[in-house]
Design goal:
By secondary structure, this protein is an alpha/beta fold. It has 20 helices and 20 strands. The strands form six sheets. It has a five-stranded parallel β-sheet. Helix 11 runs antiparallel to helix 12. The longest helix has 30 residues. The chain is globular and about 80 Å long. It starts with 6 loop residues before the first strand and ends in a 10-residue tail after the last helix. About 15% of the residues have low confidence.
Length: 644
């Protein structure tokens, strides 16, 4: 068997040696991310793998569990960035298209990981090179030809023809096959599409002084007989005679134009569709619209282009950053597989220099229907909801069972409730440790990433005795984290959230809020639970609160004396409606269900990440880039929970 992603070249003696060496040392990039792999019980660090943070440094792509449809195109782009020879190991992934077929598939277990890696090493050693290696083109990166009108760029067609507005022949242009990138797509509003490649100007350059001619204030050689945008800088064209009467074509009093940064939006990534903060420079203060820029001179200056516009003039009127400087704004996307950020989250930051001027965030996981079809068996519904939330499946399984029991008037019993409470607290410990591991990776505290990740794997499936055996090590880690001076310096006063902003879970309790679905629960009260809070509302307070909750959850589990993941209740053919609320590791989640003849026909879910994702703009505004990324990480969002 040979690799789908083998390198071109016939196998020779030296290439056999290279292939054998590569099979022993496998730098791997994990999808959706290491945090998801750990939550599913996989110890990647103990499998003789070298995990890397970028696909360009990998030779192996590991796909853990089923990939949500919204992440598959991004996964294909990631695979295309891996240098050859490259391989895919799929663990319980099922269909991974548009990725090529996995070189090795195995069950989503630790044993499956070990056996899959062993098979993969044999495949790499035998087939890392071959003479007929094929190409792989990620659909999101493919280029197709579309047709548009030179005079009406909002007219876009998939085939040649004539413009329905003016009758001109449509001209071809290249764009990404899915509408991303290129020079705009079908989903981009007309005003954001760039003028097609000089077609509107080429035929009219000789008639620059004619009636109705339009020209670019920055590039007077660009001429058109119709309004539009300059293909060089993206500015709106102005009438030639008006530009001349304004001295240098720069008069702003009567002819507003958008900043050239709009050109970035036309050529940018389709995931964020151009700048979120476009600046309108119409009516610049200090210009009368006819005097032009006073600092300009008609005389040619060696080394400076005629009609040169300085950065001071180009950014005049723009909001100033916190450092007092004015810069051209650019958009920078992060994710959905960015180390240290939640896997599946696409974060787009509008940067003014290194300061965040705006942000946009969304989950690429996609919102799946809770009820698959007109009705579902209760057991299938419970399993489906747990599988939909891979970062906290026990909490959502408990929530589903509680809502169904409420609808069917079923009492699980005192012992079952105590066991369930302990199971959710065990998951809280594992989830907070997982967050600490990811946060350590992003912040450069590699000791924290390694230690927290190892402890998470040790506790998330452990019984009461197993957790008691790890309790001392966990408490020592949380004390060390809270006492670390570099951690305090790194996080204090970053991403502060006031009490008047909606928030859920640890994010709320770290600012002194009291929202906790466990409050008033008689079972938890009997186990000694008390709501923990911190004041400050910044990233440091959120870290410390999670450490506090880890210690408290250890106490609750010890008091419960047993851990029991809830079993699906037998509701027979009951009809009714029920609701339940539970404190997941990220905050309160509420589920409402409707049963008809013992089957789930309707369901509605509220999650904490739906609340906390709205805080991204608040915690990133006017932050330096590094602090903004740490701020988003401190919210501990789960893209799988985003339903809005």
């Amino acid at each position: 068997m040979t690799l789908v992603g083998a390198r071109e070249g016939a196998m020779s003696g030296i290439r056999r040696a290279v292939a054998a060496a590569m099979a022993r040392d496998l730098p791997a990039f994990v999808l959706p991310g290491p945090s998801v792999a750990r939550a599913m019980g996989l110890d990647l660090s103990g499998s003789h793998l070298r995990l890397v943070g970028t696909p360009r440094h990998a030779n192996l792509l590991i796909v853990v569990g089923p990939l949500p449809p919204g992440l598959r195109d991004a996964a294909a782009v990631t695979y295309a960035q891996i240098p050859r020879p490259r391989a895919i190991l799929a663990l319980g992934a099922g269909d991974i298209a548009p990725l090529p077929d996995a070189d090795v598939s195995a069950p989503l277990t630790q044993a499956g990981l070990h056996s899959g890696l062993a098979d993969l090493r044999r495949v790499i050693a035998a087939g890392a090179f071959r003479a007929d290696s094929g190409e792989f083109n990620a659909p999101a990166l493919e280029v197709r030809v579309e047709y548009t009108c030179p005079m009406h760029p909002e007219i876009v067609r998939d085939a040649p023809g004539d413009c329905p507005k003016c009758g001109m022949t449509l001209v071809p242009r290249e764009t990404a096959s899915d509408g991303h990138g290129g020079h705009g797509g079908h989903d981009m509003p007309p005003e954001d599409r760039s003028n097609p490649a000089d077609h509107a100007h080429a035929g009219h350059a000789a008639d620059a002084g004619g009636a109705g001619a339009y020209t670019c204030p920055m590039h007077p050689e660009v001429v058109s007989d119709a309004p539009g945008k300059c293909p060089k800088c993206g500015m709106f064209l102005v009438k030639a005679e008006e530009g001349e009467s304004h001295g240098h074509g720069h008069g702003h009093g009567g002819h507003g134009h958008e900043h050239g940064s709009e050109a970035h939006g036309a050529h940018g990534h389709g995931d964020h569709g151009g700048h979120g903060k476009q600046q309108d420079h119409s009516g610049h203060d200090g210009h009368d619209g006819h005097a032009g820029h006073g600092g300009h001179s008609e005389a040619a200056i060696d080394g400076i282009e005629p009609h040169f516009m300085s950065m001071v003039e180009m950014t005049e009127g723009q909001p100033r950053s916190s450092d007092g400087l004015q810069m051209d704004w650019i958009e920078v996307p992060f994710g959905p597989f960015f180390p240290g950020l939640p896997a599946g989250l696409r974060l787009t930051l509008t940067l003014d220099g290194d300061t965040v001027a705006g942000s946009e965030v969304r989950s690429l996981v996609g919102r799946a229907e809770l009820v698959d079809g007109p009705q579902m068996r209760v057991a299938d519904f419970v399993e489906r909801l747990a599988a939909m939330m891979p970062l906290s499946p026990v909490a959502y399984r408990t929530l589903a069972c509680a809502a169904i029991e409420e609808a069917a008037s079923v009492d699980p019993g005192h012992d079952a409730r105590r066991g369930r409470a302990a199971a959710v607290e065990r998951e809280r410990i594992a989830s907070h440790l997982n967050w600490l591991a990811e946060f350590g990776l992003q912040s450069g505290f590699l000791w924290l990433a390694a230690r927290a990740g190892a402890l998470q794997l040790a506790v998330q499936g452990a019984d009461v005795a197993g957790i008691a055996a790890q309790a001392g090590a966990i408490r020592r880690l949380t004390r060390r984290v809270q006492a670390a001076p570099l951690m305090r310096m790194r996080l204090r006063r970053i991403a502060r959230i006031g009490k008047d902003t909606p928030a859920s879970g640890p994010v709320d309790r770290a600012r002194g809020g009291g929202s906790d679905a466990r409050t008033g629960d008689p079972t938890l009260k009997d186990l000694g639970f008390e709501t923990r809070v911190r004041n400050g509302g910044d990233a440091l307070a959120r870290l410390r609160l999670r450490c506090d909750e880890i210690a408290q959850s250890l106490d609750v589990i010890a008091a419960a004396g047993r851990i029991a993941v809830p079993q699906v209740p037998d509701v027979d053919r009951v009809s009714g409606e029920g609701a339940a609320r539970i404190e997941t590791p990220r905050g309160a989640a509420q589920l409402r269900v409707k049963l008809t003849d013992g089957r789930v026909v309707e369901a509605d879910l509220d999650t904490p990440s739906d609340v906390n994702i709205a805080l991204v703009e608040t915690v990133t505004a006017q932050q330096e880039l590094g602090d903004a990324l740490a701020a988003v990480a401190s919210l501990d969002l789960s893209p799988w929970e985003v339903r809005g």
